[in-house]
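Slide 14.
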Amino acid sequence: MWHATLLIAALIAVPPSAGGNVQPLWIEGEAWHSQVGSVGPDRPRYASRGACLGSQWAGDRNDWAAYRFYLESELEQAVACFRYARLDEGDSHFDLILDGKLAAGNAAFASTGGWGHRRNDEWQYRTIRIGSLGKGWHELKLVSLADRNNTNLDGFFLAGEPFQPPNLRGEIEKCPQPPLRSGADGPGPDWVDNEFGLDGFTARLDDWYYPSEEPAERAAVTLPSVLEFRPDGAQLASADRTTTARVTVGTDFDGWNLAARLDRPEPIVVLHRDFHRWGLIVYLAKDHTVAEIREAVGQLPGLEGPRVRFPKDYFTSLLAAKRDVLGEKVPARSHEPDYETVAGYLAPLETYTFLGSPQSPVKYFIQPDGAICRQPEHGGPPVISRDTRFDLATLLPAGLAPVHPRRVKQGLLGGYLPAINYGYFDAESGIGWELSALMDPGESPIVLLRFRRTDGPPRYFRLEPLQELSDGRDFYAALLRLKESWDVFFQDGFDLEIPDRRVRDACRAAIARAASGCVGLHPKYGVGHYWGKQHDGFPPTTLSLNACLLHWGLHQQAKDRLSYYFDNFIQADGTFHYYGPAISEYGQLLHLATDCVRLTGDEAWFDRHRPAIHRVVDQLLRLRAESRKQPTDALTYGLLYGSPEADTREQTEYYFSNSAWCWRGMREIGSLEAEIGRKRQQPELLRDGQALLAECDAMRSDILRSVERSLVPAEAVPFLPPIAGFGKPFATMTQDTLASYTNYRYWLETLSSQCLPPDQEWLMIQYRLAHGGELLGMTRFSGHLDDWPYYHYARSLLAHDRVAHFLLGYFGHLAHHQMPGTFMAYEQVAIQGYGRRRQIADYCVPSQLTIPLMTRWMLVVEEPNDDALWLCRAAPRAWFGSGLSVRAAPTRWGLVGFQCSPSEGGLRLTARVKFSGGSYPIVRLRIRHPQALRIARCDAAEGLQPRIDAEREMIEFRPNRAETTLQIAFLKSH
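Slide 15: predicted structure.
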């Protein structure tokens, strides 16, 4: 009854040779070099060595497993015989990629009637011809082509035809195995330290992407000057004018390489210089510097990143813990969390990023090895074997061994531009290579590439179609246009000057990438699967992107994008044009619309969209009216019934997150309408606002009554269920689907609404911490991390003044939920991984914008229910050691800026706060001395008498003029 393509394989011993003089070789399924899809070990009794590739592998489209092996001699007319088991009916389908080329497309693996646990005959073979293999290293990769493609892979034989493999575990285990290259994902000797356990383990990595020597090296840089331009280069003079030379493109002068000569419209030369761990591109005109662009990759020979070796059973211990055992280590090693103290506790993410411009409908994936694939038009990840548009392997020596992950550096040009800068070094051959790529600004999806090897001159290419260019003029001209376009984008917005160079780059990179993932004003939740049209209306894309644009002062962008959403995604009945909106998202959209008016002052924008806004309000009021048909003493009386999340849209209930956020959103709209109506003397608008506020007061009373009645006693902390009346506390926050969704979203949105009293909000935070809800402050979801709604939690941590907790999640997300060099952020990421980790779900906008949102709030954040503004509420202590400043932060009192400048001895600090508007709130300025010295005194001019709260490290005052200067003194430590 088995599929006709299966080999008959029962009980036949392996012949000593087949198809030549090479003995058949066996490779275990669990001996992968790298894989995506398996969530843990799988140990079927009848599998070779009692194990297979891993649990749940191939459950998603584009899961894959790669094997790297060495052949001592050539294997002619080779076949790969895969031993596998599959219970589900129907075929599973895979592409087989050999050494980067498609060897077999859409190969079908039929059902075998089981998973290989019960009987030996549940294991069968699928044989695929793969051609001749030469002596040396090879990579064989299986790529899943469909969801629910689950297949247990015991392993595979490499042999020449004809060949009949054995199908008994004992006989397979006798077969020889080729040398294998262990992957960074698995527990090889490069990555495991058997001398330490979790309790004694600490990790601190050298900062590879922002090296400590860079500021001094940059300060010492001197630039040549241009004396005269020539068609093939320029006449240059050294900085001290002692040396002059005619320099042509591709030659060196005074430590610089002249990379290109441009005309735009003034002549420009492009100079390039590599330092040990970073590089610099400079555009020089005759009498000034046009632009400087930093490179992440420096000198290629000897390129080697830092490494952490984890204790044995490290990840098993992390996943089993009910506390944030890593988060507890961080404050024990320093005053508070920072990037360096958290970065070494998990392996770095290494996966794809993408290229795009905000206007272009075409986006490209950049794979970790530098291959470039086009985003499928209708969504879904790139099927690498079918959609490669640029293959870096074709520019490298044949048979080059796979590069060790420590010798790969993946960063961005300019620190934040959507332009990659990847470096590789192969220690065995001594060859290094670098790839830089960008998409030209505008609607045209032109991609320009620069490739260089240590043993040859740079080469330049254009996509699509793939075309090699004669020189680098097009590449460097496009790079300059890219930088100038993003300089214009950010020029009038919120900006900051802080000691941590990474943070500013990460914020700008996040905003640039989120905008580049869109198609004009049309929103896109992400790339890969999330590029599909069904995800375009997902409200959190618009909510997070426009909240970030508003808070970063990019107001026209935010108004245009939010208008587009109102015009295209709000239906006649006030519901979203989306397959599974959460009820909470309606309240969040109302809140965002209010913020848009208050931060921009554009009441005309509100007037235009008020009809659509009230369609949303009316839809929520209908839900509330339906709920009030219940008896007044019902537990859920007055609460809103509906979906809490697109994934769980069928699980409709009375979720507190939904009711709380709709209360918040309608309350903000009511307040805004009352304010505008009063100011304009429009009685109807004032009445509408006051009526909505009265309804919200009643609604909050219903919510609070239900919350109080729903609290459940638990061991240490009372349990507040996500659903009104749900009575059973969670043993852990990842015990099942409801617990995981509560931990990653339902509770976080309940907290961010700030509807509940602080003591009840605190119960959720405590319970989450005590029941395995966090790792390095980030959110656990099942066996991985899921931080896309984390900014909701961050806002609540600030409101509760949990500064260290806020910073732990901030630096945890920055170090571990994003790629360290490209800052690419994903919806879900793995916890497990030794030398590197992979994403679990694709890139998505809300996760990407977590850092710029948190950065803005840690520096400038409003009290939502008070006439007060916090400055530096959660700024890291270290930043005060050398000073920090903020420019043009939008608030409801106008633009705000400030500067904190410490004295040389660190015992005094000058703070200047400036408002652009005519009204001033209460200002709460937190000054966190690097050595935690107490504030002793604060002096201000013009009769201002600031109040000092030394315990909270805070100075409170209400300005009496646009600019206020404070002189702050600290007590000497004892």
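Speaker note: The first strand starts at residue 6 and ends at 7.
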